[in-house]
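Write out this protein's structure.
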Amino acid sequence: MSRRLIHFAMLLVLCFASSACNRVGLAYRNLDVIIPWTLNDYLDMNSEQKGWFNQRLKEHLSWHCSTQLPGYLDWLDRLQQMVESNQVDDAALQVRTQEAKQAIAQTAREITPSAIQLLQGLDDQQVKDMNNAFAKDQRERQAQYLKPTLQEQIKQRSERMTKRLNAWLGALSPQQQQRVEQWSADLGDQNQQWIANRAHWQTQFSAAVEQRHVSDFPQRIEQLLVNRESLWTPEYRQAYAATEQAARSLLVDLMAQSTVEQRQRLLKKIDGVRSDFEALKCLKAARQS
């Protein structure tokens, strides 16, 4: 869960780091990236729970669209101004990233009471199934990201980033491609810290849900969903800080090396993101009310 949020924070931060940004409208309607509620991936809900869940999602989406989305459009304007003026520097990226993190945290706080209510209503079999789903998630991610040799991990990470960059900037120059490869090599065994921290979070989440009828359960879930960073492993805390800095440095260098055509393509992509948002019926209704 946390890594998906970090991706959104770092690039809706320049939309390079999340392939879901290619169709923001679709992601928004599915509440997949912007509203950080992915428990549905791990829970097998009964019909009554699904009905309740879907209704609450609609309510949260309505709230989000009317109160949060206008700020996202302003955020895109600031991002676009950075690209247009060719002023993509570390300080500006830090500000944009912090703004995105704050928006995500605000949404997480809004939906946490609903998550608490859903979790408190789970029966023992559903909790067992959730834990099994977490275990499967861990096995799959370990196989995908940790089983390959370190050199292969570095190569795959570089290839994934290149694919995302190609979508937003077009073909990279040899100099830009070399910079991407250096970025990936510098991250080293970052996959190890990420996977370990994810498992650490899931373990704590499972332990909290086992005690879902205890009085402090709401506070424990709020910390897990809203204040996730406070529960990171020390190793991941250090790795994350380095990873975030490396991502900013990569973006600064790539934009400094970018051509006029690449920047124009990026601006067109940002316009597409804005258009996806503005086309949402909920935003139109909010503006008319």
